[in-house]
Design a protein that fits this description.
The chain is of the alpha/beta class. It has 14 helices and seven strands. It has helices spanning 16-23, 43-46, 50-55, 79-89, 102-115, 123-127, 140-144, 148-152, 161-164, 170-178, 202-210, 212-219, 222-232, 249-266, and strands spanning 6-10, 29-30, 65-69, 94-99, 156-160, 199-200, 233-234.
Length: 282
Amino acid sequence: MAQPDFIIIGGMKCGSTTLYRWLETVGPCWLPRQKEPNYFCDDAVFSRGSGAYAQLFADAPAEAVTGEASISILDPAHAAKAANRIAAHSPRTKLVALLRDPVARLRSHYRHEVGRSRESRPFAAAIADESKSYVRRSEYARGLTPFLPWRNDGALLPMRFEDLFADDESGWNEILAFLELPPTPRPHAKHNVSAEKPAFSRPMLWLWESGLIETLNAVTPKGLRSAARRLLLRKQPAVAQSAGDPVPPPILERLRQDNRRLQDLLQSDRWTWPSLNPQRSD
């Protein structure tokens, strides 16, 4: 099976789309059009077999550094299974894990779901729902634990969202060095920023989840696409403003506990954020 040289494994709302687009500007780097194939973390996709996954990279030049991004790999609900599959089927692949202030990530995740018309409850009620992935996707220690063998082998790079976007470009340069890519000026455009995006109507959500959007975009004239967007997109619902509400204390403490485990796993106190300071309520 064709193995990618690297996978951006997450986390969700931690800058993976922006990093993906930036890496597309680096000469030797080749990325498939489909950003999130989810081969290693989605049972239905995995059941299609390695040949379908290898086809993603079939057009890559022989000398290219190939990669993909499947952010659900770092979801604690899938991480152990995904780690076992990567170890068995793509053992030479390097992994990049983007980690963001857990509270900021949580708020962005909530805005994303509201904008997709998949969430209508206020922030505090929504994130208290254990059937949803809001809180667990901010529990980075749980997600990273199955990938410690890659860390020990120097094949896992945890990267702070805040360092990736730092003015000194330190995070960007560290990623290029890790992936053995040449020094390249960092682009500045940010992509998939939930707070800046219009919301989906229900018909738009259906088109998105059915996978028809890309097909329609390819065959629809630009002027007609613009008219369709005006019909299918809307302003962010008022409930989205509740994303700024305080995080309930039990959830905040849960994130603090996971963050302490993360610092132990990565053997550094670098992996903490002001929002988790016990002296602050949020």
